[in-house]
Specification:
It contains 40 helices and 42 strands. With about 1200 residues, the chain is an alpha+beta fold. The strands form seven sheets. It has a twelve-stranded mixed β-sheet, with helices on both faces. Helix 31 runs parallel beside helix 33. The longest helix is centred in the C-terminal third of the chain and has 38 residues, at about 885-925. It is globular and about 120 Å long.
Length: about 1200
């Protein structure tokens, strides 16, 4: 039953969840209510913290269709639980009203008697009877509408009834970031388990008359809660302001007529009119008429204007070309929510219209906001180990709890005292100030990062950045300069290359097809009199010296089609004009002498196709021309073979090996039968065929000055660097060599993967990047070289190969990413997939990009740092004001410093609680305890002061090859803590026992009141009458001795655990910490040797001067022993201790914890790895019942 009713929602998506249905059970609710009353509300808190317990305790299991409550669990590693109440939208009496809506949403409603749904994370899930599951209504794409259907059925708009009904399901078109009230935030914060524990502690201390310490903890908690509330509230307000700045605007909507409406009323299927002066898009919409120039920096981080054209309408006859509309595949025709439409162009008599596709949180902007509102929890070993360590402390507290009860019963202690003191030992063992102490180092690191221009929106990621051992870099704009410079051109005539030329700005070339292609094949536009567009297009067009003119709004409205953009050369490049005869008409003369090219149609650049194309016509010519520009390999494949030079591959390789970016141009003379109207509807593939190769444009992309030095620093620190770019493979390899990512002596093996075709399995061919034909002949010689040579290799592959390997060679993918250094021609989603593949082998992955197409990868990486300050940086945990990669080592250094600080603070706080636990346990044996003000002095004056100053150590000035540990549960760390615990226990026990053997020692009893009587004798008879009896047995020699010894131990342990080099600056450079420690030492010595009655009364201490000297001897001996153990022998003893722990745990054979290290060990003894350049790896499909050898899904074959 349970297995059958376990449903999956959001299948194969990032937020995939398992869903179970429950029905509220009244008798269970009654039993739970009784339990809540009996436990004083604690059971209610427990059910609040554990939603799955709440549901299972109050509900019974039922079918998902009949559920009143659904319980969801994420399928990721975190296994988070969510609870949602199922609601009913429409009852049977109202179902007739939705008949108009059923046309659109019948796949979800299926004529149900009631429409059931639940809301989770700002998303509504509706019950679908056809699939017997809850599904999300995203928008128009749910119907899988084709491009022609968008034009034929959705271009006229909706009626008022249709619009009203759809709004019932899709809701208001608004990305509502509700700012919670302070009261709600307060309740949520206060109900945190930590604050509930603090409340319990305060009540307990108050019952034991520790009022001052309880008040101090309450004061600290109030400040902590207030600070947290202010920070959370500020983040909500900032996000709300960012989202709502342009979320509600007035729009023109096509109903029966064109009406004005608020953008909040829009629903999928509405047709909105895009104003000519531009707007901020309030939804995702697909253009069905006209053209728009859009700034998409909010989503992509790229401020370059993008031209959006209307969605092609294949028509009823062209069923093959009539694909289903997809936002991803048709993004060149889609206007995304939050993007800025700068300009529109339109037909005469027609407006620029767009069909609304998605609204609200379903839009691109809405999904980005959802990812910020509901982020995935940070998975880091330190935090998991911290919880385990706390559980260990709780176990120790349990032992003390039982010990105190047994001891008290044996000594006939009153029941009230037994309860208070036994519970009090739990509050001692688990320190209330731990979370605040752990946060301090991260806060300080965040401030230091801000000072060097790195801003952080996810502070918990700072610690994780300390573990980064691999960083992926985008190339253009990140490793290299943003701008491209034209290095030269190399034209082709009659299938032969000319010599390279510096530029095309020559009068001899002004009327050539090569220059015409450079002048027309781009997506540039005039915005406020300035040319804007892709930097490459801009450099290419500027190199021609031509002039671009666009039709004004008035000119466009006079024609029945869009007026073409016109380009023409400057007059100084044109040949001398012939003399005009007197009988010639002036206008005809101007027309004949003018040389202008009008751009009739544009096929925008597609990263998937790696090319763009335009159709243009020369003024006065009847036939049109098609011009093509794109990746050389792609352009050459679309050209006639006789027009492509035979040495094309060699010439291209020479340029790319030198690091140049190469663009190829092609041209085609169109048939005269292709009129203006036919060109607007012709298929792109038909236009981009049988082209004539024109030549190459060679662009130079220089490395940024800081790139090589930073990569060298990372390499010295044993941090892998990987290049992920959309550029050409060989260009990327060349840049990788130039910047030092690939050392000169290392080999690069290119993996060319081909998908299955004509019944043949998918295969990978391996070749060298450097002149493969020559290296093939030398391959046998390489085999007899030293074995270490094979460790010095790097894999390089294109996006296409990566896609084939991901799909058909899953078990080979992890081996490839182990040495993969260059990933070229990668699409944005492939960059994200690569990050996930690297994380799957346990790399801590950083990603550095300029924001363009890198948002997904920046968000998915453990530490993503954006070099763009645009809105896209919201998706990245870190944003750098410095537009180069020098921020990466700085971030890693600060991350390492913060991580080590967290380790130091946690170890110190653990020792603090254990030291205090030892003191209290020893004092319990004589029915004594530490005093209220002694607790106060230790926790406030010593612990908090030391914790908040020891976290101030700045990061070490350079990256070192050694990496900090990733977790607390490791041999060396545990052994260092255990040794310090044993030393503390030993010295406190010796002090406790030794003081009882002194000649002046008197055993305390309520009658004798030993210490107080000696004190009264010292102070004189006038104090005897006013002195109160010490009923709590605080002021005795054992208490005083342990108070002083433990106080010195806290300070010494802080110094021992305050690590400096190689991840932090030495502690002696942290002057607040040094001043605090020295000040506390001076104060302790002062009150020991020069007692002040007011201070002694306040701290409830007393003693003999000679015993004070003995305590100093104890403190100095403890300090020397601890420091000696830490500084001189720590490495060797820790290593020996770790080996002992490993032996005790039966870990005789050392196996690397990280998968990539384990994989590297396996590959080091694999004779077939890396694949030789003379081999091909082919996927094999095993027969049923006959699994492949060694579980491998591929086989390596030598080329014939």
């Amino acid at each position: 039953m349970e297995k059958e009713e376990l449903k999956i929602v959001n299948k194969d998506e990032e937020d995939e969840m398992e869903l179970q249905g429950y029905r509220v059970c009244r008798w269970r609710v009654a039993v739970v209510s009784l339990g809540v009353l009996c436990t004083g509300g604690f059971l209610l808190l427990l059910l609040y913290w554990m939603p799955e317990w709440c549901v299972k305790a109050t509900c019974t299991r039922t079918t998902v269709r009949e559920a009143e409550v659904v319980l969801l669990q994420s399928t990721d590693d975190f296994k988070r639980w969510f609870l949602a109440k199922v609601r009913v939208m429409l009852r049977k009496a109202q179902i007739k009203k939705v008949s108009a809506l059923v046309i659109f949403a019948n796949i979800f409603i299926s004529f149900s008697l009631q429409i059931r749904y639940f809301t989770l994370h700002s998303t509504k899930y509706y019950w679908n009877d056809e699939v017997h599951n809850f599904e999300v209504l995203t928008g128009l794409e749910d119907r899988e509408v084709t491009c022609s259907t968008v034009h034929s059925e959705h271009s006229t708009g909706l009626t008022s009834n249709q619009q009203e009904y759809r709004r019932l399901f899709f809701g208001v078109n608004e990305i509502a970031v509700k700012v919670p009230s302070v009261f709600k935030l307060l309740i949520k914060e206060v109900l945190n388990p930590f604050y509930i524990f603090q409340l319990f502690s305060v009540i307990l201390w108050s019952a034991d008359e520790y009022y001052y310490y309880a008040a101090a903890i309450v004061f600290m908690s109030v400040i902590s809660i207030a600070t947290s509330l202010y920070t959370i509230k500020k983040q909500y307000v900032t996000l709300h302001d960012m989202v709502s700045a342009h979320s509600i605007v007035r729009v023109s909507v096509c109903r029966a007529n064109i009406e004005e409406a608020l953008s909040t009323d829009l629903v999928p299927g509405d047709v909105m009119v895009i104003p000519s002066n531009g707007t901020i898009m309030p939804c995702d919409a697909v253009l069905i008429s006209g053209t728009c120039i859009v700034n998409e920096s909010m989503l992509t981080g790229e401020s370059v204007p993008v031209t959006k054209t209307n969605l092609p309408n294949p028509g009823e006859g062209d069923k093959e070309g009539d694909a289903a509309y997809s936002m991803e595949e048709h993004k060149r025709h889609t206007l995304f929510c939050g993007t800025h439409v700068i300009q529109t162009r339109f037909y005469s008599g027609e407006l620029v219209k767009a069909v609304v596709v998605r609204t609200g949180f379903s839009t691109a902007k809405g999904q980005l906001v959802r990812s910020i509102l509901y982020p995935k929890p940070t998975d880091f070993k330190l935090y998991r180990d911290a919880y385990l360590f706390l559980l260990c402390l709780v176990a120790i507290a349990g032992i003390g709890f039982v010990y105190s009860i047994v001891l008290s019963i044996m000594n006939n202690v009153p029941a009230k005292t037994i309860i208070i003191e036994s519970l009090d030992i739990i509050t001692i063992t688990v320190p209330p100030a731990l979370p605040a102490a752990m946060t301090a180092g991260i806060v300080y690191a965040q401030r230091r990062l801000k000072r060097i221009g790195i801003f952080c929106i996810s502070p918990q990621r700072i610690n994780i950045c300390g573990q980064l051992n691999l960083v992926c870099f985008d190339k253009t704009g990140t490793l290299t300069e943003d701008g491209l410079d034209l290095w030269g051109v190399q034209r082709v005539e009659k299938g032969t290359f000319h010599l390279s030329e510096e530029n095309a700005y020559k009068d001899t070339l002004v009327k050539s097809q090569f220059v015409a292609c450079m002048a027309t094949c781009h997506s540039l536009t005039n915005i406020d009199g300035k040319l804007s567009g892709d930097p490459l297009d801009l450099k290419m067009f500027e190199a021609t010296g031509w002039i671009l003119e666009e039709a004004t709004e008035e000119e466009t409205s006079l024609h029945n089609r869009i007026m073409p953009t016109v380009v023409r050369p400057p007059k100084q490049l044109m040949p001398p004009e012939p003399v005009m005869s007197p009988e010639q008409d002036m206008e005809l003369y101007d027309l004949s002498s003018a040389y202008e090219i009008g751009i009739v149609r544009q096929f925008p650049f597609s990263s998937a196709l790696q090319r763009m194309c335009v159709v243009a016509r020369l003024l006065g010519e009847k036939r049109m021309d098609a011009y093509l520009k794109g990746a050389p390999e792609v352009v050459a494949s679309l050209c006639k073979k006789d027009t492509v030079p035979e040495d094309f591959a060699e010439v291209l390789e020479d340029y790319t090996k030198q690091g140049f970016r190469v663009i190829a141009l092609a041209h085609r003379r169109l048939e005269s039968k292709l009129t203006w109207h036919k060109v607007q509807n012709v298929n792109r593939d038909q236009m981009e065929a049988n082209m004539e190769f024109l030549g190459l444009i060679i662009m130079q992309n220089k490395l940024k000055a800081e790139t090589s030095g930073v990569l060298q620093d990372l390499r010295r620190a044993h941090i892998r660097t990987v290049m992920v770019t959309g550029d050409n493979m060989l260009t990327a390899i060349s840049v990788a060599r130039d910047c030092g990512m690939i050392p000169p002596q290392d080999q690069v093996i290119i993996a060319d993967a081909l998908p299955p075709k004509d019944g043949q399995a998918a295969k990978i061919t391996w070749r060298y990047a450097d002149n493969p034909s020559k290296h093939v002949g030398k391959a046998p010689r390489l085999e007899v070289r030293d074995p270490w040579w094979w460790d010095q290799y790097h894999f390089a592959m294109s996006g296409k190969s990566f896609a084939v390997i991901t799909e058909h060679f899953q078990d080979l993918l992890q081996k490839l990413v182990l040495h993969g250094t260059v990933f070229a021609r990668m699409a944005p989603d492939q960059k994200t997939e690569l990050i996930e593949a690297l994380q799957s082998v346990d790399y801590f992955v950083g990603m550095c990009g300029d924001g363009a197409n890198d948002c997904g990868a920046l968000k998915r990486a453990h530490g993503g740092i954006s070099l763009s300050e645009l809105e896209a940086s919201v998706a990245s945990p870190f944003t750098s004001r410095t537009p180069n990669i020098s921020c990466v080592p700085s971030l890693i250094r600060e991350g390492r410093a913060a991580l080590i600080t967290s380790f130091c603070v946690f170890k110190f706080m653990a020792l603090y609680s254990i030291i205090q636990y030892i003191s209290v346990t020893l004092l319990y044996s004589i029915l004594s305890n530490l005093g209220d003000f002694q607790f106060l002095f230790i926790d406030i004056a010593i612990i908090l002061l030391v914790v908040f100053t020891m976290s101030l150590n700045p990061a070490w000035k350079e990256l070192v090859s050694r990496r900090p540990p990733s977790g607390l549960i490791s041999g060396p760390l545990l052994f260092s803590v255990l040794t310090q615990i044993l030393i503390c226990l030993g010295f406190q026990t010796i002090a406790f026992l030794w003081v009882r053997h002194q000649a002046w020692y008197h055993i305390w009893t309520p009658q004798s009141d030993a210490c107080n009587s000696s004190l009264r004798a010292n102070l004189g008879p006038e104090h005897n009458s006013s002195e109160e009896r010490d009923d709590h047995n605080i002021k005795n020699y054992e208490n005083t001795s342990l108070f002083y010894v433990s106080s010195f131990q806290y300070l010494i342990v802080a110094i021992v655990f305050s690590k400096g080099k190689p991840f932090r600056q030495p502690s002696y450079k942290n002057w607040p910490f040094v001043v605090s420690c020295i000040g506390l030492y001076i104060f302790m010595f002062f009150i020991m040797f020069y007692p002040v009655s007011a201070i002694d009364e306040f701290l409830e201490v007393s003693g003999q001067n000679e015993w004070g000297i003995f305590i100093v001897f104890f403190a100095v001996s403890f300090a020397l022993f601890s420091l000696l153990l830490s500084c001189c022998f720590q490495g060797g003893i820790d290593l020996w201790g770790a080996k002992c722990l490993s032996w005790l745990c039966c870990r005789r054979r050392k196996v690397p914890k990280a998968r990539y290290m384990h994989l590297a060990q396996e590959l080091s003894v694999d004779p077939d790895w890396p694949p030789k350049p003379t081999t091909t790896t082919e996927a094999k499909h095993p027969l049923p019942g006959n699994p492949p050898e060694n579980g491998s899904s591929y086989q390596i074959m030598a080329d014939s």
